[in-house]
Write a structure and sequence with these properties.
By secondary structure, the chain is of the alpha+beta class. Helices cover about 20% and strands about 35% of the residues. The chain has helices at about 1-20, 50-55, 165-170, 265-290, 300-305, and strands at about 25-30, 35, 40-45, 60-65, 70-80, 80-85, 90-95, 100-105, 115-120, 130, 135, 135-140, 145, 150, 155-160, 175-180, 185-195, 200-205, 210, 220-225, 230-240, 250, 255. Strands 7-8-3-1-10 form a 5-stranded mixed β-sheet, with no helix packed on it. A 5-stranded antiparallel β-sheet has the order 6-5-4-9-11, with no helix packed on it.
């Protein structure tokens, strides 16, 4: 009896131990922006399992390249006067805000920054496990523009720039300029810069309209009333200009608007046409009448009024 109770107690204990949920080991994670293009700013965020601002533990970040070679891009250690960070290849660390979250900034992203990143504390052997995150820096495509068909002066039209990537997500500055047909120097007609918060701020020539709310991959520049000064070649570029991708220009043609004749003029034109038609009908009727009566030999004389009478053939 005692043996059976002891066996049952052991069985229940095993069930309790087996059924007890095990706590997952804390993991260091990291995150990057979804879309990153060359020359745009981006950042990498490390989420540590401890507040480094309190523990003062050293940490580092390394990148796996395509050939699986690992490169340390950031190494930070704490000193009496604060954090000191060694970085390479255009990385920087926001040392004033190091805690459970550490931000590594990349001011001007390049394709070489692509790869898998891992954040770790030191010493490495006691650091929690870490999940990698990927950064994929894409080459910016060629910028194009489209001015549409020739527009009559006084009519509204628009010009569309296709930058090939989302300017809002990339927080990319840009501008649009025009070469006038009889002017040697380009004129900047729209200059837009990221306001550092959530939108673009644009300085636009008074003869054009540009809605900052619609800025994305495409930028639409509206012309409410086309004039000769709007005609010319246009080009769209990102800033800074030396780092802008190749851009294909487009031309806007403004033509004279055709004038329509007024109704009175059209009325007199119609009367003249009808009079001409009536004369032709009468002449044909006269010829048919003469032919019907068989007076072929008298037609010429009747018209010239040389004979008073005419005998049939």
């Amino acid at each position: 009896m005692m043996h059976k109770l002891f066996r049952d107690a052991i069985f229940v204990l095993i069930l309790l131990i087996a059924g007890r949920p095990t706590l997952a080991e804390p993991t260091i994670t990291c995150g990057t922006e979804e879309i990153v293009y060359e020359e745009s700013s981006t950042r990498l965020t490390c989420n540590f399992t401890e507040d480094l601002g309190k523990t003062k533990h050293d940490f580092y970040v390394y990148r796996f390249e395509n050939n699986s070679k690992s490169v340390i891009v950031t190494l930070c250690d704490y000193h009496d006067d604060g954090w000191r960070c060694d970085t390479t290849d255009g990385y920087s660390v926001a040392t004033e805000s190091i805690n459970t979250e550490v931000t590594i900034n990349i001011k001007s992203a390049k394709v070489m920054h692509s790869g898998q990143y891992v954040c770790k504390t030191m010493p490495a052997r006691t650091s929690p496990s870490a999940s990698p995150c990927s950064l994929n820096v894409k080459v910016k495509p060629m910028i194009t523009c489209d001015a549409g068909e020739p527009v009559a002066m006084g009519d509204s039209t628009s010009l569309t720039c296709d930058f090939g990537f989302d300017l809002r997500k990339a927080k990319q500055d840009f501008y649009i300029y025009r070469f006038h047909y009889d002017g040697p120097e380009p004129v900047i007609i729209a200059l837009c810069s990221w306001n550092g918060i959530d939108a673009h701020s644009c300085d636009v020539d008074h003869a054009y309209n540009l809605s900052t709310a619609s800025i994305s991959r495409n930028v639409i520049l509206k012309i409410p009333s086309a004039t000769r000064t709007h005609a010319g070649k246009y080009m769209c570029k990102t800033l800074p200009a030396p780092q802008s991708p190749a851009s294909r220009e487009c031309s806007l043609n403004a033509t004279e608007k055709l004038t329509r004749p007024d109704s009175k003029h059209q009325y007199f034109q119609a009367l003249l046409v009808c009079a001409g038609c009536l004369t032709s009908v009468v002449s044909m009727a006269l010829v048919l009448l003469v032919l019907r009566n068989g007076k072929f030999h008298c037609v010429k004389h009747l018209l010239q009024k040389k004979n008073a009478e005419c005998e049939p053939v």
